Protein 1
Amino acid sequence: MKRLLMLILVLLILFTSIQVPVYAQGISVYVYGENVPFTNNPIVSDNRTLVPLREICNAMGAEVVWDAKNQSITLSKDGITNTLFINKKIANKKINGQIETITLDVPPKVVNNVTFVPLRYISESFDIKVAWNQAVQAAYIGEYDVPGKGEFAGYNKLLNHQFEEDYDVYFKVEQTGSSSSIDIKKVKLKSPDLKQYITYTYLDGTSHTLTRGQWYQYFNILSESDILHDVIRRKYGELYNEWVLNYGDTAVDTNTEKYIDKKYLNIKPANRFDLANMKLIKEWCEESDLNKEGILLDYSNFKARTDYNSGSWVLLVSGSILLKDKNTDRTIQELTFDDSLIETRDGSNFYYEVKKNNITIRLKLGESISSARYIAEFYGADLLKLGIIK
């Protein structure tokens, strides 16, 4: 009898110490405001929510590579890669060539032949904010919106966005047939002290002390010159980013328009199948797409600025954009500009189009300050036809 009781006690200890994942009923996950329709419910393990790998990565736009030999998963998005290992609480995050090993709260798991990954880590590792609404049992990855109240009734309030510590953002989208209009209102939550003295120390040890207002005036002068914006950003860091947010390019508007385009106007990057080459290509290839093909873009001699002329916005462009082989630094194509381009509108988006060396190019204002301020997209079929992409 004692042996039987001892055996029962051992079995109870054994089974209660095993953490069994539990399917989570009623949990919803939204990515940029869109509900993710999981074919398998998320699971809860060690009080952490895990979601099916393929579906969450598809919704976020992350690429997935499975390594069966090492039982690892590599996720890639926006120049960031994350490698996770099944049943291991470590992840290797790589950005700008630097690898950081991170300890996870809960490891990825395979349950009934479905791979589940920790939701919060997957999101935050790509620098995408996550919010949890306990009342409705919902996780929000990236921005989402709710109806505005009071004076903003009729508008939608954008939540979980990257500027929410500085701004409340409201927007309204109105569509008539194929036309649409967007109204964005921003409420500034705090204003920087323009009289505060700020000292910036350069790499050579020298320093300058100016008021914040004077620094802002300096950045405004630089922005009108031919100095590259990415150089300014690297040199002055957060102080320059602060100016961009408050007095420079309207990053808040750009961010909000991007969200509206995706959720409300259904404007998405188009893909097409090229019958002649039997290849699925992106209709408009941007820098990240070319990087995957082993091609780098060099904007160092490219200049672009907008002007208003005879009732239309025009883009004055000069210099060159170089397409270079990523491995050899050899120039594949040199696209030379000396043009005045008229703005083309597509819903809430606008661009300037031109053809150079049999390549159709769209020039668009960058979502962040790029080296050229205006970034180029290339018509995929032209690149394929010329053999620039394989």
Note: DSSP finds eight helices and 31 strands in the chain.
Protein 2
Amino acid sequence: MMAVKVGTRLTLVLLLALTPVVTIYTYWSVTRSTRTYINDLKRETRASTRALVPAIENDLRDHEWDQIRDILKRMSRDGTLSALFSSAGTLWLARPAFPHDLTPEPAEFSRSDSQGFVEFERLVAGRRWFCRLVAVNLAGHRMGYLLVAQDWTNIREDLRARSLGSIAAAVLVMALIAAVIPLTVRRYVSNPLSELSRRVTHFSDQDDGDRGPAGDEVELLTEEFRRLDQQLTKAGADLLERHRRELELERRLQHADRLATIGTLASGLAHEIGTPMGVIRARAELLLHSRPAAPKFNDGLGIIINQIDRISRIVRMLLNYTRGREPIRTACDLRRTVEHALSLVETEAAHRNVRLIAALGDQPLTAECDADQLQQVFINLAVNALDAMAAEGGTLRILAEVDDLGRGQFARLTFADTGPGVPPQARARVFDPFFTTKDPGKGTGMGLAVSQSIMRDHGGQISFVSGPEGARFFVTIPLAAPQPPAQPHNGSNVETAR
């Protein structure tokens, strides 16, 4: 079954709605016009009779029969006839062409006596007449009756012609509407819907074999939107799955970056662990080969226990840094996180003859964050600074400030080293994944990329400036609550030198 286009359907609906309206209006207009025209003719006839009766009464009183005949002659023109009847109802005076069948019935004379006049229509010899019969009195006595008859035969034909003209005009209007509506609908409805259908269909990747039979534009749009909804739902699910995989990959990259950092710190931590192990061995040999006094024996065991605790603390810090887990946002003091990160790199800094100076202020810097992730950022920045100063040593300063950027307070942590700085040709790619200026085997190129991703996830960012005096990396992160300004000072919270 062929589908009806929406333009055709709309045209049919409009025509069905307009046809009764136009028909009723045409009928009302014709009826009203006919009634008005007939009422005008009746008023004309009534006015004529009202004007004639006084004149005829005067002529009857004066016996002016010639005047009466002249009046009847002048009245019998343009389709109007007049006649004078006696009080007995017999024809008194009339023109020769007056048809006798127009003579009123006795009942009509009686009604004229009681009402003063009577109006009626009569069909005579195929012609229709409108008649008005008026009583003529003289000195209070009934003298006769005046009949004025108006030929309405041509009037009926004229009214019929007018009605046909009105009907023809209505039909013409409907024809124009039937012609204009499809053009208008096609231009402003069908064509835009067809274009929208074509564009929506363009987004659908369904095969033509899967499509049902084409309907009108609305049905086609409905079907295509349904297909598009299915495809968008599927694409949304694919994006969620891809996002899940990207998050998993990002976690793995962060963990890999931690392992790479551990590789850098391994030698220093091995030395750090080796020292207490040597002390433990010496004390154990002493206790094994000698019989010290009880106080000395207790002192030796105390030293062994302290050294074991030291080893456990170093290993625990390393394990906590290495262990992967789901991110957890809590309120934490950024100063404690920085200090913990520096405690992991201080041995490596000492081996490389680098002094660590942290001026973090006396006021807490509280932020909603994942402390382990921020610790990874701070360690990456510190290790990069140590690598930059590996040749001759130097100083790494960490400063804390509070800035108001117009959208809340932010903590600003500055990592400033005294190395050679970032080469100009590498500055645009510092945060690119797998880009590194380190020697082969000494870096993966993921540290700064992962760190920037972590900071953006926390609503902050990492930026830097570089010059001959070294590089300065700035870490900004929004604070959880308004903070008093952090006052940098010359004293150092953490300082390591070899």
Note: Residues 217-289 form the longest helix (73 residues).
